[in-house]
Design a protein that fits this description.
Elements lengths: L2 E4 L10 E4 L7 E5 L4 H21 L3 E6 L2 E7 L5 H6 L11 H11 L2 H4 L2 E5 L5 H8 L3 E6 L4 H8 L7 E5 L8 E6 L2 E6 L23 H15 L5 E6 L2 E7 L4 H17 L3 H4 L9 H12 L4 H4 L17 H8 L5 E5 L7 H8 L2 E6 L6 H11 L2 E4 L8
Parallel strand pairs: 6-7, 7-8, 13-14, 14-15
Antiparallel strand pairs: 1-2, 3-8, 4-5, 4-6, 9-10, 11-12, 11-13
Helix pairs in contact: 1-7, 3-5, 5-6, 8-13, 13-14
Length: 393
């Protein structure tokens, strides 16, 4: 198949629309559904991310994409009891495969942003992964293959309209890429830089120069995630998964704050008060996620006030106070942070420190590098200047 006609482009008024190859065949097949223009943008960007994560870590990888940026990305490390509970996989009867663990982590990092996502899997989608996907609100999935059981499950989703795309894992795009803006064609070489290069961590200007192997792995995950995130962008990673992604902000400190706030929410969801919220039986998954998000926020009375809490809980929970939240967040340690370009000021490090960041990888090259280094030294943070910018537009 050389081309595929689409219903419309980014918006319904943008017709005609298609994807096509100037030479050769499309490296993908639509096995179910009718993906749209934005679906394919998410699918092809997210596929590149998980493909590169697998190449870099030699582990299955998954990503959850919304509006051409990742809401979550992860490799397939096993879930402990706490993560299984906050990702709502503890009731699954089948044992979780590595690719299922990767998907649960990618989807679970920021469940609010992942609502209605497009999923990418680096490995063949198996039955248990399809089972996890089926219960979530999602637009589609791209993977190199599907087992018969998985395909049957996915074809039943959304009354048979769920988008399922199979990509040729051996496909290699041309080294030059093009796009048009306002009738003008832009051309550039594809960003083929490898981010699992040990030399990226050789320039360490901070007093603390200790980068454990797990930290290097997590920083590589952060940098690869940023490579496919709309810039400006910052990514917090812990234990093999992104826990906070700040994308598309004009100011880098706003990226750092946004990603840090998401990382804090991920960590707060593991607080015993949150994990033991007494939800009413049968509450919708989206309603439960939204309720948790509000409960954690300063607007908690929106779900705890008399006349409101009865809609969500069997009994009125105690608030998670500001002091309790601050004390809990202070327990988060060993977080890694990647930035797609240099930090212009030390305020980014100040904010990162509040969310448990102990390791940073950023391009370096700011006129205020000295201030950024001094701020890292103030908190004992190890920082590498990679010399690599990762803008993506």
């Amino acid at each position: 198949m050389k081309e595929l006609t689409l219903k419309y482009g980014c918006n319904p008024n943008q017709t005609p629309s298609r994807i096509y190859m100037e030479e050769g065949e499309l490296p993908l097949n639509v096995l179910n559904g009718r993906p749209g223009y934005i679906n394919f943008l998410d699918a092809l960007n997210s596929w590149q991310l998980v493909r590169e994560l697998k190449l870099a870590t030699d582990m299955p990888a998954a990503a959850s994409f919304k509006h051409v940026s990742p809401a979550g990305a992860a490799i397939g490390l096993p879930l402990d009891e706490t993560l299984a509970k906050i990702y709502f996989t503890d009731d699954v009867k089948l044992p979780l495969s590595p690719i299922a663990c990767a998907y649960a982590r990618a989807r679970g990092a920021d469940r609010m942003s992942s609502y209605g996502d497009f999923i990418a899997l680096s490995d063949i989608c198996d039955e248990v992964t399809a089972t996890l996907i089926k219960r979530e609100v999602s637009d589609g999935v791209i993977a190199p293959g599907y087992t018969e059981e998985a395909l049957k499950i996915l074809r039943e989703k959304r009354n048979g309209t769920y988008n399922v795309i199979q990509i040729d894992p051996e496909y290699t795009p041309a080294p030059i890429e093009r796009k048009q803006v306002y009738g003008i064609t832009f051309e550039q070489g594809r960003n083929e830089i490898r981010l699992d290069n040990p030399k990226l961590f050789e320039n360490i200007p901070t007093k603390c120069k200790n980068f454990p192997e797990d930290a290097k792995r997590d920083l590589i995950i952060a940098l690869i995630t940023l490579k496919y995130t709309q810039s400006n962008s910052v990514c917090y990673v812990k234990d093999g998964q992104a826990i906070g992604i700040g994308a598309g902000q004009q100011s880098r400190i706003h990226c750092t704050r946004l990603a840090g706030n998401k990382a804090d929410i991920w960590w707060l969801r593991q607080n015993p008060k949150v994990m033991n919220l007494p939800f009413i039986p049968g509450i919708r998954r989206a309603d439960r996620d939204n309720t948790i998000d509000i409960y954690i926020s300063d607007d908690y009375m929106d779900v705890l006030a008399d006349g409101e809490w009865q809609k969500f809980f069997t009994e009125q929970p105690e608030p998670l106070t500001r002091e309790e939240k601050k004390a809990w967040i202070a327990q988060n340690k060993g977080v890694c942070l990647g930035s797609d370009a240099f930090f212009p000021f030390g305020d980014n490090v100040e904010r990162a420190h509040k969310s448990g960041v102990e390791f940073i990888a950023q391009a370096g090259g700011s006129v205020r590098d000295d201030h950024v280094i001094d701020t890292c030294d103030k908190y004992g943070i190890a920082m590498a200047f990679t010399g690599v910018r990762l803008f993506h537009h």
